Amino acid sequence: MKIPKPDEAAVSPVLGLVLAFAIIVGGIGVVQQFFVPAWLKNAEGDHYSKLHYEFGGFHEKVLEAINYGEAVARFDPVMRYPKYPLLFTPEVTSSSILAKRIGKVNLTVDGGTRSFDLTVLEFDPNYIYLKPSKEAYICGEYFALSNSGGTRISDEYISGDDEVRLIILDLRNENINSPQTITMRGAKMERSGSITLEVKVISPDYRWYLEYLNETFGEKDFATVTFSKGENRVLVQMDNVTFVLGMAGEGERNEYLKNVSSALNKEVGVLKISKGDGTYDEIENGDSTKEIDISSTLKVDDGIVTSLVYFTGYTKYPNADAEVTIEYVFEDDTVTVNTTWRTNPDGYLQLPVSVSGAVDEEWGHHGGKGHRDIELPERIDVTITVVDEVYSASLRVSD
Between 312 and 88, whose confidence is greater? Predict the structure, then answer.
């Protein structure tokens, strides 16, 4: 029997080890080249879906802010790649959500013009394997961006059949590329009548938005559109339209309320008292009790007073309780009514106060009804408290 030499005996295990190592390395290489990219692409897809959901929900947060005063939006654009033993994977990559000021919006109401920055929120997804397109949120609508322009991918918001809704963003954190929470405050008001909207775009990347506005408003019966392509602006003159202006951002709500009320020529902190003859008086927040004579404006039907007096106007507080005290002061008695009303999402208050009296009926000699005497209060004292706003009026009803 031939006995192997010592060097020959060592060759087989070494060759086996080298071969096994080569197979392992080759296997790792195959996994690294063909499987890892697919795994990472799936991980990127999961992250993109979550981030896209956050970006897509931004509109609801804006509406929450302008309707209820405040909302919180959260974004996490940082992608952390998974790790696998013996395999190489990237550490992190980050998408960006960028607030860009691309132009100006000018509103003209009753001869006065108010200017706002036209700000868009741009979503730029950044991944190694996945290549989604950019998107932008502009004035309440979402658009997919490409080299040729933008295509709306959400429901139409800015223009309806007889209503125009415009959202102005005031975002001061210009680039979100790390996990962040944005606390937004907002306000809105509406105005009916004739309004002129002018949009100017200075960013070359967003000039297509002017064409979009031209097409959108060009289809509306209430609008006359002038598109000046050379001047990069669209002028929309609207008649008999309800215009809803909302503003949201990282400033103070009272600041936004002041801005939108000024743009629409609306007064905040003043309540109108509408009387039965179509005239009205005004009371202001914080003023002393105002005496108003309504005796000559009461409506009488078959000897019964059927009048309502309305207190209407904008307060600083949306969806807030309005604590109301109404005192009916008669010659020998006072009847007090306490009730709680509520302001609308834009801070608007509409409170009806009834003017009524105690009715005494006397029967006739033959069982029929005789005359009816109505005792009206001498005055009605009304106090309305909305958070820290106080409105007070004394309505003179009879002598």
Answer: 312
Q: How many CB atoms lie within 10 A of CB 130?
A: 16
Chain Cα centroid distance, residue 205: 25
DSSP code per residue over 267-323: -BSEEEEE-TTS-EEEEETTPPPEEEE-GGG--EETTEE-EEEEEEEE-S-TT-EEE
Integer CA distances (angstroms), 185 to 114, 171, 253, 348, in order: 20, 11, 5, 17
Between the CA of residue 349 and those of 27, 83, 314, 392, what are the distances in Å? 73, 58, 6, 14
Q: 41 with 49: CB under 8 angstroms? A: no
pLDDT at 312 over 50: yes
CA separation for the pair 273, 43 (Å, rounded): 62
Looking at the chain, the whole-number percentage of residues with pLDDT higher than 70 is 88
Q: What is the DSSP string of 54-72?
A: HHHTHHHHHHHHHHHSEEE
Q: Are 257 and 168 in contact (CB under 8 A)?
A: no
In one-letter notation, the amino acid at residue 25 is V
* pLDDT tens digit sequence for 5-59: 555 555 677 677 777 777 777 777 766 677 878 888 999 999 999 999 999 999 9
Q: How far apart are CA 275 and CA 296, in angstroms?
A: 10
- Are 258 and 316 in contact by the 8 Å Cβ rule? The answer is no
Please report which confidence band the pLDDT of residue 370 belongs to, taking 50, 70 and 90 as the band edges: very low
pLDDT recorded at residue 362: 47
Dihedral class, residue 389 (left if φ above 0, else alpha if ψ from -120 to 50, else beta): beta
In this structure, the number of other CB atoms found within 10 A of the CB of residue 308 comes to: 13
Tokens 């080890």, residue? 17
Q: Angle 36-56/58-68 helices, nearest 10 degrees?
A: 20
Element containing residue 175 per DSSP (H, E): strand 175-176
Mean pLDDT of 139-144: 97
